[in-house]
Amino acid sequence: MLYYIFRFLEQYDIPGSGMWMYISFRSLAALIISLMISAWFGEKFIVYMKKRHISEAQRDRSIDPFGTQKKGVPTMGGIIIMVSILIPILLFGRLRNIYLILIIGTMLWLGFLGLLDDYIKTFKKKKDGLKPTYKLAGQIILGLVVGLTLWASPDATINETITTEQVEGHRVVTHKSESEKSLITTIPFVKNHNLDYSKMFTFMGKYRHAAGWVFFVILTILVVTAVSNGANLNDGMDGMLSGNSAIIGVALGILAYVSSHIEYAAYLNIMYIPGSQELVVFLCAFIGAMIGFLWYNAYPAQVFMGDTGSLMIGGVIGVCAIIIHKELLLPILCGIFFVESLSVIVQTSYFKYKLRKGERVRIFRATPIHDNFRKLDKDLDPTSRFIFKNWPQRQFHESKITVRFWITTIILAAIAIITLKIR
After folding, report:
1. DSSP result, 272-311
2. Radius of gyration (Cα) for the chain, nearest Å?
3. What percent of the chain has pLDDT over 70?
4. Are 238 and 299 in contact (CB under 8 A)?
């Protein structure tokens, strides 16, 4: 909103109005405002929820292995995150940008889906919340809408070929290909690191391009579903998901910025994506909201984000990666989410397999995998046998586990970024 106001005022040479055109100014302003809102609104939200005794029934009954009882801690803190992101974006974003529209829609849709889940858990006292089929349907619908929008919108284009030359000691862009719809994505650690999905279907002849878009839409659905569920599983310890998400947001912001800057895109030999700079504004607001929320969510938590926050966070990360054609970097960048999901799948599948043979055998002490590091022997199922019962040899406090997961995410984020040069 302010962007359009000051762009109008710039025509009349109003001092200072020109700085609103700079992506750096708008991004940093969004980060600061988001951080301030989350810090202020977070406190008000916690007081309001505590007065009305609104907390998740399942968490009220849980006790930390080290003795900390998490009773009466308000949930639905994802509302704090969404408000803290939405207000700066409405103020500093170019609201007609197709990518910004998509990412705001993603945030609101998955936030609403998570809110329904939290409402059922909190007010209906049903610990399972929203039925998994409804959650999955909502994620599939979102992935379908995002994929089809990127296919149909004339504004969702890339410039694949960019060349530069030295002119009087300065690097300048001398050529770029025409903006076009594209099925190209970045492959990490590969020299010619672009993959065209349509080339996977050359056997289909003249229909290969259409088949490539169908594959892209299906892939978008899978990415949105996988990352949002992975983030949801990662939200099991105080500060875990909010810290990891802030780190991932920084990495995505860097990738979005270099993709939107024609000279950096030329230097790094990556796709130039016009308009993706608005994602930088969004991601800065996202980072500010995560840090502000972490102020209250760090151990011992004063508020839980609930599915309102976790589903939304994962969806936002997945859609951002899809928009900037970096979805194949997600297994690296979101490696923590991937391992959390994989641990649950492996544990559940193997347990059911052995149960059919009359045995109760589990691989890990507990899943998602972060719980494996704090589960005490006295809390293990005495009727089950554990393959990795002695891993780890001693259990850790959740604050130590959280920080170590943050460190791991920092390393993975750094690896994801340097893949732009290591190929």
Report:
1. B-TTTHHHHHHHHHHHHHHHHHHHHHSSSPS---HHHHHH
2. 23
3. 91
4. yes
What are the pLDDT digits (tens) for 123-181? 888 888 899 999 999 999 999 999 999 999 999 988 877 776 666 666 666 667 778 88
Class of residue 346 by CB neighbours under 10 A (exposed 0-12, middle 13-18, buried 19+): middle
Question: What is the residue whose two structure tokens read 């209906």?
Answer: 124
**How far is 369 from 101, CA to CA, in rounded Å?**
35
CA 131, 133, 134, 138 dihedral sign is positive
Most distant pair of Cα atoms in the chain: their distance: 80
User: Across the strands, what pairs with 180?
Assistant: 158
Report the C-alpha gap between 140 and 168 in whole angstroms: 52
Structure tokens at 118: 């939290």
Torsion of CA 281, 286, 288, 290, to 10 degrees: -170
Q: Which residues pair with 167 in a beta bridge?
A: 170
Residue 159 phi, psi (nearest 5): -115, 110
The DSSP bridge partners found for residue 111 are: none
Q: What are phi and psi of 361, to 5 degrees?
A: -125, 130
Question: Which helix (DSSP H) or strand (DSSP E) does residue 39 occupy?
Answer: helix 23-51
Distance of alpha carbon 41 from the chain centroid: 22
DSSP-derived secondary structure letter, 363? S
Tell me how far apart the alpha carbons of residues 135 and 139 are, in angstroms, rounded to a whole number. 6
Q: How far apart are CA 312 and CA 381, in angstroms?
A: 33
